């Protein structure tokens, strides 16, 4: 709200009331939160330079990114949704997912008439980060109840995902969920990791403790080759008891070949 008020009346930032106080004076005196104080500390020129979009990204990122996600989902730009989740910390992602009774999940349902593995993958990633969304209701409908409405006609794969419960999510590692709902995507993402673990288990250290990723609970998503390499390096050192130097040489060899 504060961002919109400033956008529509930039000069209000420096206007004084009948006590001679500006908005920032009042904010300091009343103990306003740091975000409001930072926003009201802008000059009209700074606010104009940032524009509405810039102020939203800086001072209201949760609301800003929710709108962006809605637009990406409606336009079927699922790659942008995945990219955004990859590039932002889980705390911000969860806050965006929680906003307005987890409205983003209903946006997914309402745009799921045509099957897309990228959309199902997105739904799984969103639920994994905010399992309670499965129980959130709006106009008396949970995401599953909405998906089952005849006028929505969500695809069966999305309905299957929203049949999950928070207990299912808490008790099942994400790779296992992915294998159950999107086996092709699972092998695409985790196949190289499992192949390397199996190769090292059989050749480098036959008596090590390496296990395939389906029971490896702390690996979530290898978004980049660098992320893959860091997870593998950690496992080589901590789970297979190889030193970082030897593990690093193995990774270098694998990526070179």
Strand content: under 5%
Question: What letter string, H or E per element, gives the SSE order?
Answer: HHHHHHHHHHHHHHH
The helix fraction, in percent, is 55-70%
Termini distance?
A: 54 Å
Number of domains: 3
Indicate the structural class. Answer: mainly alpha
The whole-angstrom Rg is: 24 Å
DSSP E strands, number: 0
Morphology call:
elongated
Major pleated sheet: none
Mean pLDDT: 83
Question: Low-confidence spans: pLDDT under 50, at least 5 residues?
Answer: 212-220
Count, helices: 15
Describe the model.
The protein is mostly helical and 257 residues long. The protein has three domains: 2-59, no CATH class; 61-171, no CATH class; 184-256. The protein contains 15 helices and no strands. The termini are far apart. Helix 4 (44-59) crosses helix 5. The longest helix is centred in the middle third of the chain and has 21 residues, at 90-110. It has helices spanning 2-8, 23-29, 34-40, 44-59, 61-74, 78-87, 90-110, 117-129, 143-147, 156-162, 166-171, 174-181, 183-203, 225-238, 244-256.
């Amino acid at each position: 709200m504060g961002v919109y008020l400033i956008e529509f009346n930039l000069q209000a930032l420096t206007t004084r009331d009948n006590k001679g106080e500006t908005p920032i004076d009042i904010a300091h005196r009343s103990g306003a939160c740091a975000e409001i104080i930072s926003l009201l500390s802008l000059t009209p020129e700074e606010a104009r330079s940032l524009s509405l979009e810039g102020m939203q990204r800086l001072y209201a990122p949760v609301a800003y990114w929710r709108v962006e996600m809605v637009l990406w989902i409606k336009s079927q730009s699922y790659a942008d949704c995945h990219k955004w989740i990859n590039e932002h910390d889980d705390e911000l992602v969860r806050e965006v997912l929680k906003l307005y009774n987890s409205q983003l999940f209903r946006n997914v349902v309402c745009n799921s008439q045509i099957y897309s593995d990228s959309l199902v993958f997105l739904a799984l990633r969103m639920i994994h980060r905010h399992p309670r969304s499965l129980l959130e209701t709006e106009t008396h409908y949970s995401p599953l109840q909405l998906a089952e409405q005849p006028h929505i006609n969500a695809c069966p794969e999305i309905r299957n995902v929203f049949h999950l419960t928070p207990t299912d999510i808490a008790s099942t590692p994400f790779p296992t969920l992915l294998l159950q709902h999107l086996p092709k995507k699972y092998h695409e993402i985790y196949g190289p990791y499992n192949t390397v673990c199996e190769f090292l288990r059989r050749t480098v250290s036959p008596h090590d403790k390496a296990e395939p990723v389906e029971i490896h609970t702390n690996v979530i998503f290898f978004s980049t080759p660098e992320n893959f390499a860091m997870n593998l390096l950690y496992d080589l050192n901590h789970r297979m008891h190889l030193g970082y130097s030897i593990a690093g040489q193995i990774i270098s060899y694998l990526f070179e070949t």
